[in-house]
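Model: You mentioned two targets. I'll fold them one after the other.
Researcher: Yes, keep them separate.
Model: Target one:
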Amino acid sequence: MLIEISALPPAIQEQILSVQKGELVQFVNHGKLIGNLNCPSEDSLMAAAGLLQGCGIDGLEYERQIRSEWD
């Protein structure tokens, strides 16, 4: 979903722009929780980037294998 932030009221724009990494954002409609959005922290992003490090997996070979399935 794409939302044009400039089309929202200024108070909502400020709230959205103040969200920090790692913060949980909850969406409420008439007092009822309708959704959650968890903004990942930089630490969790860096941890995910190295999940396969040291497992002896050749990333380029893995990519070629995956792409060969598309042909």
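Model: Target two:
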Amino acid sequence: MNIFKNKEKFILILLFSAMLLVIAACSDDAANSDDTIDDSGEDTAGDESEGLSGEVEFMTISLSPTFDDYLNNLKEEFEAEHENVTINLRDVPYDQVEQVVLTSASSGQLPDVMNLNTDFVKKLAANGAVVNMDEAAADVKDTFFEGLWETGSVNGEVYALPWYTTTSGLLYNPDLLEKAGYDAPPTTFEEAWEMSEKIKEETGAYGQVVTDEMHLLMPKNGINILNEDNTQAAFNTSETEEMWKDLKEKYDKGLFPEDVMLGQVKLPELYAQEKVAWWSTGPQLFRQVKDLAPKVYEKSLGAPALEGKAGVQHANPMNIAVSSNSESKEAAVEFAKFVTNAENQLEFGKLAAVLPPVKEAVNDEFFTKGKDSEDATESGKYYAAQQLESAVNMTPPVEAVSEIYKVIREAFHRVILEDVEPAKALEEAEAEVNSLLE
């Protein structure tokens, strides 16, 4: 299938939708190989799918026209297996999704199968508008990585299947590490900071750099942004206070620059100039360095993302949900499982530079071949796929999430740049966040 046109546009959309969650489901019978997905084309839906009928509208977000061939192929294959089912494709631009979903929900006319972000999944689930997947898709639950299956959960029940996602890898410069006496990159944040001081002394380059993503650094180290029911701030803790004090000390030592923290300078630019020893990001972005500085990219290597105290990584998954009012509910559920099975997830991962949150798919050679690759992007892709085992979505499912992140970010900036005591900054930020949640 030739669906690579406008691929860069798709990746930008994916990043712009960084708060979107991903869905992936895999049929229990999808493969019988240790390394590959069974592409025999056999119907793996099982006896329950026999006799399916009706029309099913499948709404996607900003996938057309780039992935029209892929989506049409899904439609044709499913219809060939179920001759009494008709799949109608509908793609909605990202900036129109909210209006379309809210309008459709208010009229009780939601699309049968929907590509949704996590926030919408939870809102619709709270109103009984989408199907409980713990019940309807129980047969495929164990094919997903546990942390990603829980993405669409509300009150302990899951209402969406995880589709495509991303995680991070580490791009590093072995020359800078060698000059500082290291032969391997750090594996934890603690180790990264230990190495950073020597790297700065020996090379003048930075090691670990603080970005504007405090909202991810905190959960990776076991600090929750909100409480369990997302009604109050939960980050004003002694652990956060100690973290911010420690980072303030590191800043005062000159171990990280303020311009990156403030979003004034982009890390790929610093990395390309060999002013920073490593860059943690999605491996699909590693080649930005190749565009900026081919020689720096050629000597760079890929590694797993740094691990915090909580031992989890962040993933931004998309979801697929089924309308509880669908007139073709059985067919819609089976189609949702078909879209997110291992074979179809793997195919989409190959085309779109994303990861399938299905256990079987990431064991395919497409990902595993990168384990020993000297190309940073290939090895980074392997490590990112392996990290799905410990991946969770760290974005609180509340409308004011962007404002909450801004409050936390600005409180941290006051600690670093204005010498405000961490305890005071956290107390003020807590009050602001609680006000946003009222």
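Researcher: Noted. Anything on target two?
Model: Confidence is low (pLDDT under 50) at residues 1-49.
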